[in-house]
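@channel sequence for tomorrow's demo:
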Amino acid sequence: MENKLLYKGKSKSVYAGEQSDTCIMEYRNSATAGNGAKKAELEGKGALNAEITTILYRYLENNGIETHYIKTLDATRMLVKKVDIIQVEVIVRNIAAGGFSKKYGVPEGTPLKNTVLEFCLKSDEYGDPMMNESQITALGIASQEDLDILKNTALRVNNLLSSLFDRCGIILVDFKLEFGRYNGKIILADEISPDSCRFWDKATGDKMDKDRFRRDLGDVLGAYREVLRRLKNAQQV
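structure tokens (generated this afternoon):
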């Protein structure tokens, strides 16, 4: 019997697990941009993102960050803890890029004097609008205590990932995190991959993430494969 489909997002599908407190997350080959306005199928992308996320979540777990990851089932599927997703996306920015540059008129690539944390409502219908902490607490989406956990965890993740990617010759420009509640505790969920991060080559500045798809730069999968290759090499050092 096939597992019941619980949720189908832009690039991942979530199915019920064998146990009630687990789910199966499947990474698909779908690529989207502009809140789904631009779409394509990139053969092999799902497997690349699944393997990259697996490496990064194991690394974070080994460094004290609890995630929803349990184990890898095959090339595109992983078993995860079933969480109640908090409807707030946390964006961590180290360097001005993308929407931040457009919104505030800051040239892309400008180093930021401190790490920027942004909150967005997790809503495709409303285009994931930015929210401040008082709006989030006023609507009951999360408490101030919850937000403090999200912020502190996001900054710890940033320090850990920035260090890892630096060893890979990659600049971690910015990235998005999602969190969920599991047995009363807030843990990291969703994915960390070139779909949800901006990676720039440290030597050349070349983009190694979904901006290659967003901006029609070409060789999207080649960039993802290079990120994976460098992560594997870093593990062996």
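heads up for whoever presents: The CA atoms of residues 33 and 214 lie 6 Å apart.
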